[in-house]
Amino acid sequence: MKIDKNKRTKTSSGFYVSQHASVNTDNPIPTPKAEAPDVLRVAYMELQVTDLAASRKFYVDVLGLHVSHEDDNEIYLRSSEEFIHHNLLLKKGPVAAVGAFSYRVRSPEDVDKAEAFYKELGCRTERRKDGFVEGIGDSVRVEDPLGFPYEFFYDVDHVERLAWRYDLHVPGALVRLDHFNQVTPDVPRAAAYMQDLGFRVTEEIADGETVYAAWMRRKPTVHDTAMTGGDGPRMHHVAFATHEKHNILAICDRLGALRQSDAIERGPGRHGVSNAFYLYLRDPDGHRVEIYTQDYWTGDPDNPVVSWDVHDNQRRDWWGTPVVPSWYTDASLVLDLDGNPKEVVERTDDSEMEITIGADGFSYTRADDDEEMPDWKKGEFKLGNQL
Predict the structure, then answer these.
(1) How far is CA 292 from the centre of its chain?
(2) 307-356 residue pLDDT tens
(3) Which of 152, 218, 252, 375 has the fewest CB atoms lying closer than 10 Å?
(4) SS3 376
């Protein structure tokens, strides 16, 4: 079918495409006059864990991430195709939480721009010329207007890219850090602010009145981060990419063989949003990790925004498989620059989980669908009934 790019058009796949996202907000964060930094991509997450040994077993022994450096309090990990020092920092602490969502910028001058951008917004910032962690040089950390701890850096130690070291690869090899997902009460406000930071919306879930989630990118994939509506600021998940679907299935088989299948929260399956194959795991502290592959190119300047109706039961899983309730409700705390958990603010807009579950607790609501869901299918969607 031909798409009129000047109109919002329903595709043969059931979602809509247009050139504009639904990010209108009546409570905008002011747009700074200072130039935004040129963000390249997600670089690493600093994850505070309560049991460093248990976390090492999960991320290294089970998932196969590679150790760049470790001591009694920290473990620096990277994926097999990474050349910067780390993609994940496990840091021992008193509470499970996120210490930093870290982005790499294009030049040293962009670190200056990031500092000026957030200072103009009135955000707390901290700059360290020698970096906050091993392997990272001059960087600035901020408590952004949404309450998230962001970091921006350019200078970084290089390590060996292990893509050619097939003797070290496992069947479920994690090859790249792909994205973050953040939980925030007001998605349009968050998305508009991220657009000021230079991010572009690629996909969204909405209805006529409410935006439930938005996906935003800097690198030319579906997202570097997403804003999910809920009580926040919290971290929904951090995601690593594999090359193929079979790598994800190999992770499932490995977890089964190790009798650790309880770590699987949701999946495997295929998303409607992003079209990616996925698996959601929970680490020993409950932090959610997505294993993700095969989304699509978004680098063209007129790449259309994909909009999903919140009542489309194939938006979250293309096969219509239900989303377990914990996936909507659970998320990790985030820390301020002093290492204290940030206060969680309640979402007042409609909840995606509540609006897509019928009054009887299990009959999934679907817009413009006169056919009742079959009885044998309803049991999958009854809250608390997943076995």
Answers:
(1) 11
(2) 999 989 899 999 988 888 899 999 999 999 999 999 999 999 999 988 88
(3) 375
(4) helix
Structure tokens at 377: 């299918």
DSSP class per residue in 276-290: -EEEEEE-TT--EEE
What's the CATH code of the domain at 89? 3.10.180.10
Query: Where does 87-233 have alpha helices with state H?
Result: 108-120, 187-196
- CB-CB contact of 21 with 191 (8 Å): yes
Q: Could you read off the pLDDT of 288-298 as tens digits, one per residue?
A: 999 999 999 99
Same domain, 127 and 197: no
- 386 has a pLDDT exceeding 80: no
In which domain, by residue range, is 236 found? 168-351
Q: What is the pTM of this model?
A: 0.95
Q: What is the mean pLDDT of residues 54-67?
A: 98
Token pair 């196969």 is found at: 64
Distance CA 242, CA 277 (A): 10
Q: Which residue has the tokens 């509470």?
A: 95
Q: Which DSSP category does 52 fall into?
A: H
Q: Which residues of 47-67 are buried (b: 16+ CB within 10 A; e: fewer)?
A: bbbeebeebbbbbbebbbbbe
Q: How far apart are CA 119 and CA 136, in angstroms?
A: 22
Structure tokens, 152: 């921006």
Question: Which of 180-184, 343-347, 383-387 comes out lowest in average pLDDT?
Answer: 383-387
The answer as to whether 67 is a domain residue is: yes
Do residues 196 and 117 lie in contact, with contact meaning Cβ atoms separated by under 8 Å? no
Q: Tell me, yes or no, whether 265 and 377 share the same domain.
A: no
What percentage of residues in the chain have a pLDDT greater than 90?
A: 85
